[in-house]
Amino acid sequence: MTPAKTSEQPARPWSSGTAPGAVPLLGHTLALWRRPLPFLTSLPAHGDVVEVRIGPSRAYLVCHPELVRHVLLNPRVFDKGGVFDKARQLLGNSLSVSRGEDHRYQRRTIQPAFHIQRIADYTAAVADDTRTAIGSWRAGQTLDLSDTMHALLMRVAARTLFSTGVDEATIDEARHCLRIVSHGIYQRTMAPLGIMEKLPTPGNRRYDRANARLRQIVDGMISDRRRSGAGHGDLLSTLLRAEHPETGARLNDREILDQVVTFLVAGSETTASTLAFVFHLLGTHPEAETRVHAEIDEALGDRSPTFEDLPKLEYTRGVISESLRLYPPSWMSMRVTAAETELGGRTLPAGTMILYSAQALHHNPELFPDPERFDPERWLADRAKEVPRGALLPFGAGSHKCIGDVLALTETALIVATIASRWRLRPVPGTTLRPEPKATLEPGPLPMVCAPR
Ligand code: HEM
């Protein structure tokens, strides 16, 4: 079979290379497992497509933004396989792991819950929940910002996407379970053999208990909504109403449950981590914090922010983009070739593992000069035009692009504006940020002291 010529034409010939430092038998597995961020960041220096050995298998990290776009915009050739096949066993055939026609149907069905008007409608609840959360803060109090933002985002998700009347204690319990489940899914999808998670270890029992309880809580939300019959236009009612255009089939409770758990996993930790990173960056860059405060004060005066205020917060949005660049919550993902194809001058057989990494793109000095520097001005009008197409990729691209991207950016800007109009958050002296690459890139414990403005 002739390889499908699918690569776009480069301005210069594509270069390909091999990651250095492979060790016998394991290849680069230890580097990827133990220090993935510096390892991935180092690879673009070795080519546009770089071969990485994971034990006996070969994978290819795509480093050039045009090639990454090519991979993500051609899902028939570069399909969701590998870790997504494993995740399908844990999350069901829900939006983030489904493929082909099934994925197109789910995406069309769910999209209305993320329409810009719906997002605008959600913002009052987001601002409200944020005000309630910060209402209990005290001057001089130390908060773990990672935990605080995760708790806030869980409440926001419960209120916006599922419009639920679930009590606070249950939301907290669901949050606790979600952390265990999300971490467990990551470990299970990354585990090479698939044996360890079947053993009755304390960790596996904890995962099973958390998973069962989380599903019981979500099941209760679904039954309540079915009983009340209330239509809120949110994600849950969209799922309950969905009808297949040809068969007329509706989603059963199990399918709805899988979607809800998927959205909680995909949507809450990513946004919570982003917020924690943003406040860490503001707390450690006083000049940026001063500009954010000035911009918010000018746009809002004494009011709480609304959806309509967000276009006025250009510098604040630049801070958020710069945080997503430096600390992309979705730091690496993968595809598997469905047929023999050519990529960056290499011919790859069907079944080849393709990796793409926002971490590698965002820290590449050829795409972002002085890449480790926090520089929100990169995203202001004229300089933003200099950023190469596809170089900033926190939400992916193509048919699997994050369905919650606009919601996430809106929530983040609104929460930053609500908090920063009242409080400064100061890092506890001696705290060092150590991002933890797990299912998402997490900031780890982030103690910060509240100071009223
Ligand atoms: C800052 C926050 C977020 C980041 C950085 C982020 C990042 C991403 C990325 C990179 C993908 C594509 C993964 C791939 O190509 O393999 C993705 C997909 C997805 N995200 Fe997000 N996300 C965020 C927030 C959200 C929110 C708020 C929701 C929903 C409430 C959400 C739901 C999803 C879903 C369901 C998918 C799968 C889409 C599909 O395959 O069609 N995400 N996200």
Characteristics:
453 residues, alpha+beta, Cytochrome p450, six-stranded mixed beta sheet, three-stranded antiparallel beta sheet, 16 helices, 48% helix, disordered N terminus, binds protoporphyrin IX containing FE
CATH class of the domain at 1-93 and 331-393: Mainly Alpha
Q: How far apart lie the N and C ends?
A: 67 Å
Rg over CA atoms, rounded to whole Å, is 22 Å
The hetero compounds bound to this protein are:
protoporphyrin IX containing FE
CATH architectural designation of the domain at 1-93 and 331-393? Orthogonal Bundle
Percentage of helical residues?
Answer: 40-55%
DSSP strand count: 13
Assign the CATH superfamily of the domain at 1-93 and 331-393: Cytochrome P450
Write a brief structural summary.
The chain has 453 residues and is an alpha+beta fold.
Task: Outline the structure in words.
The longest helix has 32 residues. The protein is α+β, with helices and mostly antiparallel strands. It has 16 helices and 13 strands. Bound molecules: protoporphyrin IX containing FE. The site of protoporphyrin IX containing FE has 23 residues, from helix 11 and helix 16.
Topology, element by element:
Layout: E1 16-18, H1 29-34, H2 36-42, E2 49-54, E3 57-62, H3 65-72, E4 78-79, H4 83-91, H5 100-110, H6 116-135, E5 142-144, H7 145-160, H8 168-190, H9 202-228, H10 235-241, H11 253-284, H12 286-300, H13 314-326, E6 333-337, E7 341-343, E8 346-348, E9 353-356, H14 358-362, H15 381-384, H16 405-420, E10 423-427, E11 436-437, E12 441-442, E13 447-452
Parallel strand pairs: 1-2, 3-9
Antiparallel strand pairs: 2-3, 4-6, 5-13, 6-9, 7-8, 10-13, 11-12
The protein binds protoporphyrin IX containing FE (HEM).
Residues 95-96, 107, 161, 262-263, 266-267, 270-271, 274, 329-330, 333, 394-396, 400, 402-404, 407-408 line the site of protoporphyrin IX containing FE.
